[in-house]
Amino acid sequence: MTTVERLDNINPLVFEKAENRITTDSDWDDLIYDPFDAREIFDLIRNINDPEHPLSLEELNVVEESKCEVDDSNSDVSVLFTPTIPHCSMASLIGLSIKLQLLRTLPSRFKVTVKITPGTHASEEAVNKQLADKERVAAALENPHLLQVINRCLNPKLRNRS
Fold first, then answer.
1. Complete domains list, the chain, with CATH
2. Which helix (H) or strand (E) holds 68?
């Protein structure tokens, strides 16, 4: 079987990336309290690689700034993601990649919720249940092969290594 035959979405639509955020000196001043916002969350996940394509989740329109929510005062972050096709077999892997990236990069005070955008995936309920279950997420991340795949999604430099 060739690589192309295993792809769920052989020819995905590719979207233009958003402009990089312009930062000021005050953004880097540790003495100024700067609450997290949706754009910061989006910036943390936009460059995650798709597991099937050499494209980012932003380029595939899987993640969007408008589907990132933050309640900094209550330490809640919520992200909705949209798989490229309704039967995407990689939806759980994409959700795990988003969740792990946020857990690794945000302060530990944050509760991170990652879900599929309602109505966009055939197994939406099952995937959302899996992503919400701390024990299932922890068990998935203990699988060395799965963790290696997720790390390749999170770090493009690891993508070509086996």
1. 34-157 (3.30.300.130)
2. strand 68-71
